[in-house]
Amino acid sequence: MPDNDQEIGSNLRTVRQDRSLTQAQLAALVGVSRQTINYIEQGTYCPSTRLALQLADVLGVVVEDLFYLTHGASAKSRS
Fold first, then answer.
1. Cβ of 55: how many Cβ atoms within 10 Å?
2. For a tag site, which of 25, 63, 71, 73 has the least CB within 10 Å?
3. pLDDT band at 70 (very low <50, low <70, confident <90, very high)
């Protein structure tokens, strides 16, 4: 059975900062607002598949490097 306690975690902030990009710069590269990048990094917004793929492409990583499934409240970032 699927684990209903799973949520989506994000390493977007770490990867973005490793590439010396601001939220605004990354947002411009993928065609969204800076606030959208902020919400994704905070975990309050789950990006569409298209946006997740665009972010990975622009940052030169695979989607799994940016996003992962957590297992309840005790899960930690995989970065």
1. 24
2. 73
3. confident
Per-residue pLDDT, 75: 46
Q: 66 Cβ partners below 8 Å, 6+ apart?
A: 10, 11, 12, 15, 52, 55, 56, 59
| CA–CA distance, 22 with 6 (Å, rounded to integer) | 29
Rg, Å, the chain Cα set:
12
The residues, ordered by sequence, that sit 6+ positions from 70 with a Cβ below 8 Å of its Cβ are 6, 7, 8, 9
What dotted CATH number matches 8-69?
1.10.260.40
Task: Name the residue ranges covered by the structural domains of the chain.
Answer: 8-69
Q: How many angstroms separate the CA atoms of 58 and 19, rounded? A: 10
Element (H, E) at 69: strand 67-69
